[in-house]
Amino acid sequence: MEQPAHGGEPAGAAGDAAETLDHPLPEGVRRRVVALVADAFGGLTVAELPAPLRQYARFTASR
Questions:
Q1: What domain range is 51 assigned to?
Q2: What are the residue ranges of helices labelled H in 1-63?
Q3: Domain total for the chain?
Q4: How confident is the model at residue 1 (pLDDT cuts 50, 70, 90)?
């Protein structure tokens, strides 16, 4: 996890680089994160979703 070089701004402040991991999350943690995000996004309207995800919200299987 990246630490700020200065003590003035908290981590996650505007302009900070996104956090990256050196290795994948453990499987149980990854599944829990996916489940939480799915629940949160499931309650949003298409207009409230981030733009890159809207195409998937409109997707309907043809079979």
A1: 27-57
A2: 27-42, 51-57
A3: 1
A4: very low
- Tokens matching residue 47: 């207009």
Residue pointed to by tokens 């919200």: 57
Q: Are 41 and 49 in contact (CB under 8 A)?
A: yes
Identify residue 62 by its one-letter amino acid code: S
Using CA atoms, how far residue 62 sits from 36, 38, 52, in Å, is: 27, 22, 22
Gap between the Cα atoms of 35 and 3, Å rounded: 28
The model carries a pTM of 0.51
The per-residue pLDDT for range 10-63, each reduced to its tens digit, is: 554 555 668 888 999 999 999 999 999 989 988 899 899 989 988 888 877 776
Assess if residue 10 is contained within a domain.
Answer: no
CB 16 within 8 A of CB 4: yes
Residue 10 identity: P
